[in-house]
Amino acid sequence: MASVELLDSGELAGATRHTRSDGKSRIIRLNSQQDEKFAGNRISTAKYSFWSFVPSFLFEQFRRYSNIFFLLIALLQQIPDVSPTGRYTTLVPLIFILAVSALKEIIEDVKRHTADLEINNREVEVLRDSYWQWVKWKSVGVGDFVKVRNETFFPADLILYSSSEPKGLCYIETSNLDGETNLKIRQGLRETSKLLETKDLTSLRGFMECEQPNRLLYEFAGRLKLGPREDLSLGPDQLLLRGAKLQNTTWIFGQVVYTGHETKLMKNSTAAPLKRSTVDKLTNNQILLLFVLLLVVSFISAIFSHIWSNSSEGVNAWYIGLPRIDGTEFAFNMLTFVILYNNLIPISLTVTLEVVRFIQAMFINRDLDMYHKESDTPATARTSNLNEELGQVRYIFSDKTGTLTRNVMEFKGCSVSGVIYGPEQLFVCHTVIPEREDGQLIYHAASPDERALVYGASKLGYVFETRTPDFVLINALGVEVQYEILNVLEFTSTRKRMSVIAKGPDGKIRLFCKGADSVIYERLAERGNPDSTRLTTQSHLEEFATQGLRTLCCAVTEISSQSYKEWLQIFEKASKSIQNREVKLEEAANMIETNLRLIGATAIEDKLQDMVPETIAALLNAGIRVWVLTGDKQETAINIGYSCRLLKQSMELLIINQESLDATRECILGYVNDLGRGDNGQVLSKESDAAVIIDGKTLKYALSCDLRRDFLDLCTNCRAVICCRASPIQKAEIVEYVTQQTGAVTLAIGDGANDVAMIQKAHVGVGISGQEGLQAACASDYAIAQFSYLSKLLFVHGAWNYDRMCKLIFYSFYKNICLYIIELWFAIYSGWSGQIIFERWTIGFYNMFFTSAQPIAMGIFERKCSQEIRMRFPVLYMPAQDSFGLKTFFYWVGNSVLHSIMLFWLTSYLVGDGIVWNSGREGGYLVLGNFVYTYVVVVVSLKAGLETKSWTAFTHLAIWGSVFLWVAFLLAYSQIYKLGLPIGAEIFGIGNMVMSSPVFWVGLFFVPVVTLLPDIIVKAIHGSLFQSLDDQLRESEVNNQDPTEIFNRKKGRLAFAWPPRSCTV
Amino acid sequence: MSTVDSDQTATPLAESNGHRSYSSIPDLKESKSKKKKRTWLGDFQQQTFHSWRPIYTAQTVSLALFVFGIIFIPVGAYLLVLSERVQEIQIPYEDCSNTLQGEDFNRSCAEVINSTEIALIKSCKCRLAFNVSQEMKGTVYVYYALTNFFQNHRLYLPSRDNSQLKGDWGTVEKPNNPSRECRPYVREDLEEGSNQTEGRIYLPCGAIANSMFSDQINVLYKQPGQTIEVPLNRTGISWKTDQEHKFGNPEWFSETNFSDPEVRKKFAKPPAWRKSLWELDPENPDNNGMNNEDFIVWMRVAALPNFRKLFRILNRYSPERPEFADGMPLGEYTLEIDYAFPVTGFGGTKSIIFTTQSSLGLPNRFLGATVPHRLMMVERLYRLVKLIERRNICG
């Protein structure tokens, strides 16, 4: 700060030198050339430009291991005589898959480009050469004077000079920035508000100094130097942000301070941290496992190849013309086999997942059940990477206000004990703006609490009439009273209070303060607050809180004009400082907010949102732990806990309110012991019917390094946890520690800016797009309008998507192994030479065409249990959560190996000596290959059907269509050679040969049936003896039975579990 | 086995435990009532598509499979009958002894031809007698069968030049360079790394062609007083598509061309061949050169190392030999083999097979016998499941 104060009048040159040297502030000259070159006002939100697309897209793509792997394979194939499948059979599918991804990226980016173009070409009036000229937004520069008209957006961050309204006032709407739809006031400085003529602006000389661009929306510090003496302080009140809109004001004059990507809006639009789902991470590991399998199989094959080549079969195979053995052939063979088996790793999985996730996200966005009619808000999946994570949630961390409750406040009562000062103080100490509409007053307020208070007071007869920058007019029981507002000490979450210094009609200066009871009580004067008042108010506060009401304390103090003047100097100095202004203002405010006299307390009700108790009950039923993290008082929180059915009367409440680390430790350990934990340090095993309640202060101790473990052990073993008075950072910390310690999937849900940290820390962040603005929604992964939509989001979308993804991924592994491991079986019969049994291009097209629709259909249309059943029985959410483990992975891999064995050998027996026509002719190797290939396509298609519990028309299309597509392809492809092209010589005529063989048609029925017979039998046994709960519910639904019967029958069939219990007759 | 999902009209039952009833949401209620017409897109977006939901239980599955099994019994029986009807005689001959007088007389032919370089193969002839004890009715197909012969080896299988096989040889002055794929049988005396354009071009090039089956076989039928040759067709053994589109001779090809020293300077027979391409069937110009059906059959490589290839078809319509009009009559037959193809080195065998044909191709007991058996096994599954169920319930 010292440096800024050094800048004295007339030292412009020095100022410039100074700025350049430290770069901490920015100097903007009025009506003259700028010293610095600032960023232009053109914005680009697009990911790629025309030129950067190819390099940055490829860079993005080849950060994925699988793509690198396939590129490597494609390169290896270029080595002569190594590839068994020719040179381009990996490159072409890889390019195809990259092209699909590229297409998606291009479509998305073109949208962004179009939007940018529209914005950059909007026009605004700019003062150029002493005239107002229409200029495109992209040409607006720092230091320009602009004139913005009513109901238009600000083209850049501006400093408000003057407006059409008196005293340089203007109204803005900032819903684009923070989602708040209420109007806000901005006011030009007194000195500049008189600059109403164009020539006033052109004649201005001087400079403006302000902070470097930053992302803090509500902070700004700068000063304006217009003459040698005038040194005017600029604050957030003068700042008009890009993204905001001028309202109820004909025009304003302003000067541009930040442009383009340096505006606060653009600084805030950085991408949220990229989250990956658990399934995604596990999939990666499983792909690594497949890679290991690939290496092992290749290695084994290479060894056998070596053995064969050195056996008499190989050495004396004069017909082959084996090249000389020089010792390198083992390495080359290894490469050959890696190329041969490379498709064990599913090349198309990533692109399949992208397509499926995109559509799943669309299902969420379009879900009518999650569409809030009143506010016209649909659910929004802001990322599609976490669709399946929604099906695995074990912990939910919920904010209270605005999340569980509506954040629509209603004034419920006040306690005014002690001297009756009259509730008019309510009218003074707030920032509500009244607006007359159709004869009714509508109050706009940044805080719903304040609005509720003002509405409440007006019901009591104290009507808040008008606000001007300098005074407020109140109609107190018919008498008009005017308070002159001297200063406003604004509310911040650290201060937890706000104050207004006002001069009443009696000429006395008073400070009115309202805030949380803890901070107000700290500041009460020793004298003048009889204990009775304190205690009664205290008891009233508790009473309000137990009713679940939000409380505020009000206090007042009189200030002598002398001490006010002294304080004012300090305050003004603080408000002019450019750095650390916040802190300085806080210090100044602290000085004057003392010696308060308690007036009383107010109580505001924040009603629960619709269906919250039902939703919480359902979530608990689904085995999800719900933790409420709130900034409210403990009593309020507990009460809300009861009213939303998080807490039950039968539950034991473990309340932890301690003042020191040691006491906290003792308390926590005491509870842990009570709950039956031994001294040997074992983790509690049993879930206790208890709830932990802890406040912010104790939480600080509980989360300290040495206690954290015990505390979280305790919490994770109780049914419910409520943290009161938690700060945003504490909320985030809890989420982080629980995530770390339990490894379970966490979901954080909140609506306010104070929930952003927690939303970003949790595995899944859900934002409520509601009253408190969009900040939480913008940081979230999914945004919904109501808390109750969470149940559909989790139980239906989450559970379905998880089931779908598991199946899709395992199925993708399955189908690839099933076809490609056949090369291994064939290797046994081809002298371990690495010869392919299929035609080389049909191998590559398998993933691209013949088996791409089945997994996509699975990922989009599979519905295990209907929506209705899932919503009615949340208990269904729990059991399937672990279906994506290594066990299942190996089950699927084993299944596909078995299938491939059956497919290969059954077909080999079927084809026998290869003479499968009555012409007595012999078909050759591709006839066998295409028999097998066709049966593989049929079997994997039917396997997809077998795993599909809900066949839609699309499922049929995918399953039967894929088989037909392959047959059509085979027939067409095997004729291509006739056209004279040098491709398809090997497969020439095979299609007709295959189709004309009666053995093929018998086998078409026989091979798939026999191959799938074990699967069908397992399914049948499972379906008869070991039905899971969802299977039973599904069955009862299909058979139109009453599903509740299942729960009654529970002692009968449901008791079966694997392994079956031994039973004695 | 299943029922069709009848809409989402599952009746909401009384809520006893406070779960949110799905149907309490007004929007959905609206879409459920018949007022709002269901649309394709709406069903898609709301995921309310009509669906078929199969349920697999022991009852349904075993019933279905049982039915399949029942249906397949007659099919299987028919297949078995077809397969039983096929007659087959297989005569292994890789160990037959030389009948030519000389130093190698009565030595195993395998040894005789093995003792020399492939290029200088000695002649070895042997005879094997066999009996047809049951008349082989209808068309009789003659195959040669090889074992342990890896036509499917990765280095062997692609070793051919399809354009050369099609007849694109270029001109005598400027013959086309054979494809690299033909290595190591591209040109004569081609040293590793030597200039590709030197040496005579192998015609046909490649390992497959080079290793063509080269035994000559005649079948004699012993009749009272005389021995006659069984009339066998050398044509009609290969696929039409191959003949028409994959194999061909150039326009200028004729036998006389190959006696031209200019031509002989440019082209050579593969090293393992005893005669040249234009000597494969000198009697029938349509079956000569690349068009030779024995050659075409060989070039269609087998999938597995034990394979048979169609060699000859009994000519039932030969006017000189009416004895064979109905097939191969009973009696004594002799195979007269000009033994040239080495197989014992790599542990292989050779045989000649005479077979009648079923409409499914070769006999295949596997198919007829296994399918119904497999499916009927399911019935046992059902009994097993029932047993477990009963035990569990009593427990």
TrEMBL record, chain A:
One of its GO terms (cellular component) is trans-Golgi network. GO terms for molecular function: ATP binding; ATP hydrolysis activity; ATPase-coupled intramembrane lipid transporter activity; magnesium ion binding. CDD domains: P-type_ATPase_APLT_Dnf-like (cd02073). Residues 31-91 form the P-type ATPase N-terminal domain. Its EC number is 7.6.2.1. Signal peptide: none annotated. Its cofactor is Mg(2+). It is a multi-pass membrane protein. GO terms for biological process: phospholipid translocation. It is an enzyme of class 7 (translocase). It catalyses: a 1,2-diacyl-sn-glycero-3-phospho-L-serine(out) + ATP + H2O = a 1,2-diacyl-sn-glycero-3-phospho-L-serine(in) + ADP + phosphate + H(+); ATP + H2O + phospholipidSide 1 = ADP + phosphate + phospholipidSide 2. InterPro entries: ATPase_P-typ_P_site, P-type_ATPase_IV, P-type_ATPase_N, P_typ_ATPase, P_typ_ATPase_c, P_typ_ATPase_HD_dom. It is found in: Cell membrane; Golgi apparatus; Membrane. ATP binds at residues 399-401, 450, 491, 514, 550, 630-632, 725, 731, 754-755. Mg(2+) binds at residues 399, 401, 751, 755. Residues 777-1027 form the P-type ATPase C-terminal domain. Pfam families: Cation_ATPase, PhoLip_ATPase_C, PhoLip_ATPase_N. Keywords: ATP-binding, Cell membrane, Golgi apparatus, Magnesium, Membrane, Metal-binding, Nucleotide-binding, Phosphoprotein, Translocase, Transmembrane, Transmembrane helix. The active site is at residue 399. The chain crosses the membrane at residues 287-308, 330-356, 817-837, 889-911, 923-942, 954-973. The keyword DNA repair does not apply. Belongs to the cation transport ATPase (P-type) (TC 3.A.3) family. Type IV subfamily. This is Phospholipid-transporting ATPase.
TrEMBL record, chain B:
The chain crosses the membrane at residues 61-81. Keywords: Membrane, Transmembrane, Transmembrane helix. GO terms for cellular component: endoplasmic reticulum; Golgi apparatus; plasma membrane. It is found in: Membrane. It comes from the Eukaryota. InterPro entries: CDC50/LEM3_fam (IPR005045). It is a multi-pass membrane protein. Residues 1-11 have a biased composition (Polar residues). Residues 1-30 are annotated as: Disordered. It holds the Pfam family CDC50. The keyword Ubl conjugation does not apply. The keyword Transport does not apply. Belongs to the CDC50/LEM3 family. This is Cell cycle control protein 50A.
